[in-house]
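Worked Example 4.2. Consider the chain below.
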Amino acid sequence: MNKIVDFLKEAGTYYLATDDHGQPRVRPFGTVDLFEDKIYIQTGKSKDVSKQISENPKVEICAFKDGKWLRIACELENDDRIEAKKHLLDQYPELQNMYSPVDDNTQVLYMKNGTATFSSFTEEPEVITF
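Applying the procedure from the previous section yields the following structure tokens:
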């Protein structure tokens, strides 16, 4: 799990793909946190991405850095606990003027039933399931 989180943090930006009634939607994300041995990301409940995830929690994530890329296929599960929101937002103080652990908009989701694949053109893929 640490290897996955470290890669995403070091990449800085990763891309999250969702399904919008049969149309793929891809957008940049930048938040990632390891909390209670689960990988979390964050968004706002008012955003289309949140609605798409609630309708179909199966997503894919892709990140690239230093000639290597990471692809993650997983499901995202909502966690409304204040502790989970606070833990993630503590990692990103720049977001605390837009999001709060106690507002009705902040959403944190953890990855489950995941397969992470690290790839490059020069090495064999490494697969981690979680």
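The chain has a mean pLDDT of 98. The domain at 2-129 is CATH 2.30.110.10 (Pnp Oxidase; Chain A). Compare this with Example 4.1 before moving on.
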